[in-house]
TrEMBL record:
Belongs to the glycosyl hydrolase 1 family. InterPro entries: GH, GH_1_N_CS, Glyco_hydro_1, Glyco_hydro_1_beta-glucosidase. This is Beta-glucosidase. The keyword Aminoacyl-tRNA synthetase does not apply. Its EC number is 3.2.1.21. It catalyses: Hydrolysis of terminal, non-reducing beta-D-glucosyl residues with release of beta-D-glucose. Keywords: Carbohydrate metabolism, Cellulose degradation, Glycosidase, Hydrolase, Polysaccharide degradation. It is an enzyme of class 3 (hydrolase).
Length: 437
């Protein structure tokens, strides 16, 4: 069965930041520091999904989805990251899973979507190798509660983005600016993933995946400095997180570090444990030029000649086809079935006096990308699912509540949900689909 779904993340929608025993996460800390997020917005309330989850499941059911990708809040389950388990936190996800199944929707949980317990950050966070087995134990705890009803699990969401924005550039929690000194964060996340694969399987999980954010990389010109810079970006954004998992080795990292001491004997064997699926999040290609004077081995040259989202991201549907066929060409039989675990766009959505949101740009975006997905499948790429980001307008990390990605408009003052025109379009589209293909 092909999975048609939407996706969300715990810190972006749940709220209830200090309820029912939830611990502090790095995003709680980061967002509450002045100047870290736009207008000082936090996820303390977000979409109040923790209290309104029944309403949100009804919205999914009304769409005709057969899958929902959500993330589990690590500090809600283990407030200090390890040790004591918060039963009330697990109870919340237990209720959510049962409600989804009752609505005919397959739950697809992600175990880590960037909300690391602050207590673990205080012990070094992802720069500390000891976090990897701690994550695996957390995976075991959650799976032992839910694996009897959840067939597909995702370990990590976008480890590249968490490394780059959170630890190399300081734009996301925990706000570190280590540049290429953040490479241990990549390795420790991947090691945690590999250990979690084993823990999940031992606890009854039938299918396990990892979600990577990937991008086609275009050199700004055919000149050697630009081509070399594009190759460097491809290594750090794409191959650093795909090669170890799929083929059991890192790409050449000698240009960025002379010390790979954080990689221990046996690590790559753990990291490359076979997967049942690979999650791919796609938003846009990246055009790269020779480095500027900022310490990085490349610079973003920007892409012109395409529409852009409210975020300023270029809308290039064919980039999804290019990405998927490129992954198949690079990894061949080592590439497991793919799920597009995020794809969507932010728009300047306006709630009219009639109580409608006419988001024609989002409809065109989805039409174009689903068409590109079908082209990739026609070219032999094994894709098993497509998840729209996102079900709801939500807390968009450092942008706070200024970027709206949802199929459903949220008035953050009243928490009123209003399905947009794109919601109606997707509902009609899904009604026409044969989900067995």
């Amino acid at each position: 069965m092909f999975l048609w779904g939407t996706a969300t993340a715990a810190y972006q929608i749940e709220g209830a930041a200090e309820e029912d025993g939830r611990g502090l996460s790095i995003w709680d800390t980061f967002a509450r520091e002045p100047g870290r997020t736009r207008d000082g917005h936090t996820g303390d309330v977000a979409c109040d999904h923790y209290h309104r989850w029944r309403e949100d499941v009804a919205l999914m059911s009304g769409l005709g989805l057969n899958a929902y990708r959500f993330s589990i809040s690590w500090p809600r389950v283990q407030p200090l990251g390890d040790g004591a388990v918060n039963a009330r936190g697990l109870d919340f996800y237990d209720r959510l899973v049962d409600a989804l199944l009752a609505a005919g929707i397959q739950p697809v949980p992600t175990l880590f979507h960037w909300d690391l317990p602050q207590a673990l950050q205080d012990r070094g966070g992802w720069m500390n190798r000891e976090i990897a087995p701690i994550f695996a134990e957390y995976a075991r705890v959650v799976a032992e509660r839910l694996a009897d009803r959840v067939p597909l699990w995702i370990t990590l969401n976008e480890p590249f983005v968490h490394m780059a924005f959170g630890h190399a550039l300081g734009m996301h929690a925990p706000g570190q600016a280590l540049l290429t000194g953040a490479l241990p964060v990549a390795h420790h996340q991947l090691l945690a993933h590999g250990l979690a694969v084993g823990a999940l399987r031992a606890s009854g999980a039938r299918q396990v995946a990892l979600t990577n954010n990937c991008t086609p990389v275009w050199p700004a010109s055919a000149e050697e400095p630009d081509v070399r810079a594009a190759d460097a970006y491809d290594v750090l954004h794409n191959r650093l997180f795909n090669d170890p998992v799929l083929i059991g080795k890192y790409p050449d990292l000698s240009a960025y570090t002379g010390d790979l001491g954080f990689v221990h004997d046996g690590d790559l064997e753990i990291i490359s444990a076979p997967l049942d699926a690979l999650g791919i999040n796609y938003y846009n290609p990246t055009r790269i030029a020779a480095p500027a004077d900022d310490g990085l081995p490349f610079s973003d040259a920007g892409i012109t000649g395409h529409p852009v989202t409210a975020f300023g991201w270029p809308v290039v549907p064919d980039g999804l086809r290019e990405l998927l066929t490129g992954l198949k060409a690079r990894y061949g039989d080592a590439l497991p079935p793919i799920h597009i675990t995020e794809n969507g766009c932010s728009q300047e959505d306006v709630l009219t006096e009639r109580g409608t949101v006419e988001d024609a740009g989002r409809i065109a975006y989805l039409e174009g990308h689903i068409g590109a997905l079908r082209q990739a499948m026609d070219e032999g790429v094994d894709v098993r699912g497509y998840f729209v980001w996102s079900l709801l307008d939500n807390f968009e990390w450092a942008e706070g509540y200024h970027q709206r990605f949802g199929l459903v408009h949220v008035d953050f003052a009243t928490q009123r949900r209003t399905p947009k025109a794109s919601y109606a379009w997707l509902r009609s589209f899904l009604a026409d689909q044969n989900t067995d293909t």
